[in-house]
Amino acid sequence: LLDRVDEGDKFLSNLIDIVEENGHLVVALPLPFCAKRWKKEDGDQLEGPLHVEGTSWEEAASNVAGLLQDRGLEVQTVTRAPYLCQG
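The structure assignment produced for this chain is given below.
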């Protein structure tokens, strides 16, 4: 979802704000990260997408982990899993 929303930084901040103390936030992203709008009739480009660098899975995963840690989250694990999508 973070790769399909406008103002990705703000969206992520809102998610973090609603997590209770000692709570968990599970983040799943297709990597390397490619932020684009889901419905093409609205145009491809998002307004203010989350900024994730890295052209390989490893680089992008490291960048996402750093981005989450910079926001005060403790990254417990990073896992690579198949991306299943009919779209």
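Interim note for the steering committee: Residues 57-70 form the longest helix (14 residues). The CA atoms of residues 65 and 77 lie 9 Å apart.
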